[in-house]
UniProtKB/TrEMBL annotation:
Recorded GO CC terms: cytosol
Gene transcribed to yield this protein: trxA
Alphabetical keyword list: Disulfide bond, Electron transport, Redox-active center, Transport
Name of this protein: Thioredoxin
Biological process according to GO: cell redox homeostasis
Family membership: Belongs to the thioredoxin family.
Disulfide bonds: 30-33
Amino acid sequence: MAMEITSANFEQEVLNSPVPVLVDFWASWCMPCKMLAPAIEELSQEANGAYKVGKIDVDAAPDLAARFGVMNIPTVLVFQGGQVVKKSVGVVPKQQLADLLK
């Protein structure tokens, strides 16, 4: 299951992670986010320690959404070494998300 990322654990779980982190910016009221959720969960289950998958509720952590310029949801960012290295906006196939981790 994808981990819940908050303002409190963001630095530890994302910026200081030794492996890439795929972060899904979402909201409970967002229908496209709900459409993307199964692909996010599948990637989380397939990680096997090669990467991490997390979800940030933009309503609970608007500071993080603003910090990374998230204007539309769902937005998926891949962090590596504390930096954003790839980005996807909108509902995309699972394989396209998996390709972001390569």
